[in-house]
Amino acid sequence: MTLEKRELGKTGMQVSTLGFGAAEIGFEKIPLETIDRFLCSALESGLNVIDTAECYGDSEQKLGRALINRRDRYYLFTKCGHSSGCDLPDWEPRLLTQSIDRSLQRLQTDYLDLVQLHTCSEELLRQGEVIEALQQAKQAGKTRFIGYSGDSQAALYAAQSGLFDTLELSINIADQEAIDLIVPVAREKGIGIIAKRPIANVIWRVYTENVSPPPYWQPYIERLQQLDYDFLKGELSEAIAIALHFTLSVKGVGTAIVGTTKPEHWHQNAELLANGRLSEEEFETIRRRWREVAKPDWIGYG
């Protein structure tokens, strides 16, 4: 099993279609030995994208220790824009610079492949200082590329500005606003597209298993109840495969970021990707159902 590689916009990075989202390992007490074993085996399967953020607990520190002897085998993405206990406001440019420096130290690397603004508002993007802070980090060699992670109108402005190399957007069976609103603009400008929440947190398990959902799942739960996709009523693995293939069938998507605390889940998803694709008819059936059911307030949910 080897993951397909795709070019991430004009960056030239050849990224694995499945990336590892490292939020959970920062919030859970995952032993370093487990993370190390996972990265070793995932590397053999073709994984080369790791996505983290300063606000993901001790994720950066753990990754820094696990990657110390194989930094050049992965593209390392992080995010900034949270004060992390500092006295400065979240989007103060000085804070962003300090955040990037802390990420470099925690990840034990001289450079990052991508630094992203983490859900910054459209108003702040338009003011320009936050973008300038990332541009300065790029000019200083701290990061090769800069990106924006967010949704809806703010992400649209980020795409239209042409100032970012990548966008990280919510794209999945329960979250399709970006497919029509943002992706066409990004593709036209050669901006790389990273899909977050590509399997919608497998939220439909709430209906079939005794799963207690956290509050932030609620919008997706309500949407999927109304979308009522037939494929979600079958085998869980088949439903995950269809959901993941749907996201990766969106033209322009380079990689889909999946987070987990259980390495076997990531490998299962990689195997699902290796076995078959979504037909154009299957893709359009999901899109058509969305167009029929989606409400005006079903905006991108980051």
Concise summary:
The protein is of the alpha/beta class and 302 residues long. The chain has a single domain, classed as Alpha-Beta Barrel (TIM Barrel).
Structure, explained:
With 302 residues, the protein is of the alpha/beta class. It has one domain (5-293): TIM Barrel (Alpha-Beta Barrel). It has 14 helices and ten strands. The chain has helices spanning 23-27, 32-44, 59-66, 93-106, 122-127, 129-139, 152-161, 177-181, 183-189, 205-208, 218-227, 236-249, 263-274, 280-293; strands at 5-7, 14-16, 18-21, 49-51, 75-80, 112-118, 143-149, 166-170, 192-196, 253-259. The model has no long low-confidence stretch (mean pLDDT 90).
Helix content: 40-55%
Shape: globular
How many structural domains? Answer: 1
Order of helices and strands: EEEHHEHEHEHHEHEHHEHHHEHH
Q: Structural class of the helix and strand makeup?
A: alpha/beta
Q: Might you state the CATH topology name?
A: TIM Barrel
Assembly classification: single chain
Number of strands: 10
Give Rg in angstroms.
18 Å
What about the largest sheet?
Answer: 8 strands, parallel, barrel
CATH superfamily: NADP-dependent oxidoreductase domain
CATH class call? Alpha Beta
Report the CATH architecture.
Alpha-Beta Barrel
Share of β-strand residues: 15-25%
Which features characterize this protein?
TIM Barrel, about 15% strand, globular, alpha/beta, about 300 residues
Compile the SSE list and pairings.
Layout: E1 5-7, E2 14-16, E3 18-21, H1 23-27, H2 32-44, E4 49-51, H3 59-66, E5 75-80, H4 93-106, E6 112-118, H5 122-127, H6 129-139, E7 143-149, H7 152-161, E8 166-170, H8 177-181, H9 183-189, E9 192-196, H10 205-208, H11 218-227, H12 236-249, E10 253-259, H13 263-274, H14 280-293
Parallel strand pairs: 3-4, 3-10, 4-5, 5-6, 6-7, 7-8, 8-9, 9-10
Antiparallel strand pairs: 1-2
